[in-house]
Structures are given as C-alpha cells and as structure tokens.
Amino acid sequence: MTVSPSVSINNPIYPIRWQEDRVYLIDQTRLPIERAEVEIRTSEEMARAIETMIVRGAPAIGVSAAYGMVLGAGEIPAGTLEEFRSKLKTVADRLRRTRPTAVNLFWAIDRMLETADRTTGDADDIRRALWETALQIQEDDVRTCKAIGEHGLAVLPETPEKLRILTHCNTGALATAGYGTALGVIRSAWSANRLLKVYADETRPRLQGSKLTAWECVQDGIPVTLLTDSMAAHCMKQKMIDAVIVGADRIAANGDTANKIGTYSLAVVSKAHNVPFYVAAPLSTVDFSLADGSGIPIEERNPSEVYQVGSTRICPEGVDFYNPAFDVTPAELIAAIITERGAVKPGDLKSLGSS
Ligand SMILES: CSC[C@@H](O)[C@@H](O)C(=O)COP(=O)(O)O
C-alpha cells in the first residue's frame, strides 16, 4: 500500500512516501540535477538520511523521524512488552541525535513515544498505533501548511502592483510534507493572483535556495529570480522587494526565531529599508519551553560545506572555518509570525496556544 498525504493540493511534490514497510525520500542532495528517491529500510538509515540532509527542512525532518520510529519499532525482536518499550526509547534517542535545531524533530518523536505509552495491547498493537500516528503527522502537516498559506495572504502588504517577495533557504513542499510554510504563503499568493515574482536567496553554503526553492518555483510556473545572499540590501534600496517571508526551525516563546544562517542579516536589512519581514511556521515549530532565542541550540556542520564547492576546494590551505547552520532573528525585527491558527505579532504567540 502506498501512503501519501490524502489532502489534495496543486503541487504534486511529496518528499516522504510510505510504501510496504519502507519509506521513500526524494533525495534532496541530488536536486535539481536529478529527481530520485532513496529507499529507507531501517531507523538507522532514516537517522543517516536526516544527518546527511537527504531529507531536510524542519517539518519534513519531523515527519521523517516519526516514520523512523515506525521502522525502529518493526526492528525490535520478540520479547517482553517492557523490553519493547525500552528499545523504542533507544530508537528515539538515536533519531534525536541527528540534528539539534529544528524542534519539529523532537516534537514528532515525543508524539510517537506518547502514542506508544498510551497504547494498550501487545507490541503489534503499538506498532500499528505508531504507524497511524506517523501518517497523521504527515497528513496534518499538509493541512497545516495550507492554513498558513491562507493566513499569510491576509497579512501580506496591500500594494498597487502585484507583490515581489524575497525568501531564504527552502521552505516549500520539499521542506514539509508537501506544500510549504513560507513558500506555501508564496504559493497561495500566486494562486490568488497577488504575486508578481519571487526572489530566492541562493543560501550558502548548501544552496537550498538555488537548488531547491528555484526548482520548486519552476515546477509551479512561479517566476523566480535567483540572488546571491549578499544582494538583498541592494535590491531593497532599488525598491525591488515588497516583503520578505522565511520559515523557521525553532521559535522561542517571545518570538525570537532560529532559521537558516543568513536569515538574521536579511531581517536587519529589511528593517533598515522598511520592508516587512514575516516568519511562516506551524505551531509545532514553537518551543514554549524557551523564554527567548538564547537557549536555541545552533547546529554546526562540517566545514567542508564552506571550503568546498562539490569536491573542489575553493580556498587556500591554512584557513580556519566556522559553519553555523542557523542564526536567531530577534523578535523585534519580525512583523508577524504566520501560523495555522492565524498571524500574530511575535509577542502574542502564546495567545494561539500550543500545537
Ligand atoms: C519549512 S522549513 C523552515 C526551515 O526548516 C528552513 O528555512 C531551514 O532553515 C531548513 O534548514 P535545513 O538545514 O535545510 O534543514
């Protein structure tokens, strides 16, 4: 049986697909050169797929981790129920160690463990309940993103001409279960005939903007112009940008937002040019346990992502490197946070309740 989200959307890109006890992931490291799927058979393979960014983007990582738990539950040999529950926690611990910043990963794993805890019966009953929860998380994400898209439309600035929106990293179907957060708002604006074009930051060092966002826009027929990350200030000064919309990997209770490295500079530049800066994310991305952004763990990735393009070294020997994958944008730079329950000022996030 093939299981893809049953919610109908225009865009047919589903990065995660369950079929006959396997997960199939669109290999995001091979786009845009090739659209290919990787077969994931074990929880360890899923953990490595998340680490190596075959699958990436906060909501997509959450859905993948949930299916990783399903695969892990299937690997546990016959034994007592206590042994089963304890081994499931070991699977959860391995998946938790894959990437530290996107809170959706931890949110999804916790939901899976809660499912296991409250399910009565034998190990097979728990396996079945885990599979149903993973599927639910996947389907809910598509619905959630569509709702974010609708709420986003309501807060976008009213302009005499159609909008020109700048975005960073990839927040589209590939980064979620199949529609997108910030790119979902952009997609909704396009469907509503309110969008003129997208400016996509290329997003060094891994180039999610040029490899993935530009690719998704092309699939949808949305006009897209690729920029290097340092061009935003110039473009804003030239009055080429009406709004900036980005996604999030973890939002603290006060609205401070961790997102792909470069997002903070974009927010500063937006403020300087009076361009509204929006964050679009599901409530599962909000970490109400953190009062502000100072406690958000920032992933540091392999320096080769900075000093190599492909397999070619692009700087001399004897240089040091720093490769933080995310930065934290202070809440005061954010005009609104757009969620599935509405768009609010960062300080009003709590009024929406938790996911
Ligand atoms: C809807 S995805 C929002 C964020 O996860 C996205 O902007 C981002 O920073 C992704 O980072 P990545 O390192 O590619 O997983």
UniProtKB/TrEMBL annotation:
Catalytic activity from the UniProt record: 5-(methylsulfanyl)-alpha-D-ribose 1-phosphate = 5-(methylsulfanyl)-D-ribulose 1-phosphate
Keywords carried by this UniProt record: Amino-acid biosynthesis, Isomerase, Methionine biosynthesis
Query: Record-annotated residues binding substrate?
Result: R56, G57, A58, R99, Q208, N259, K260
UniProt xrefs under InterPro entries = IF-2B-related, IF-M1Pi, IF_2B-like_C, Initiation_fac_2B_a/b/d, M1Pi_N, NagB/RpiA_transferase-like
Q: Where is the active site?
A: D249 (proton donor)
Its pathway, per UniProt, is:
Amino-acid biosynthesis; L-methionine biosynthesis via salvage pathway; L-methionine from S-methyl-5-thio-alpha-D-ribose 1-phosphate: step 1/6
The EC number on file is 5.3.1.23
Q: Which GO terms describe its molecular function?
A: S-methyl-5-thioribose-1-phosphate isomerase activity
Tagged with keyword Transcription regulation: no
Quick check: keyword Membrane in the entry?
no
GO terms in the biological process aspect are:
L-methionine salvage from methylthioadenosine
Residue numbers marked as site, Transition state stabilizer:
C169
Q: What does this protein do?
A: Catalyzes the interconversion of methylthioribose-1-phosphate (MTR-1-P) into methylthioribulose-1-phosphate (MTRu-1-P).
Q: Which family does it belong to?
A: Belongs to the EIF-2B alpha/beta/delta subunits family. MtnA subfamily.
Q: What is this protein called?
A: Methylthioribose-1-phosphate isomerase
User: Taxonomic classification, please?
Assistant: Bacteria, Bacillati, Cyanobacteriota, Cyanophyceae, Oscillatoriophycideae
- This chain is encoded by the gene named mtnA
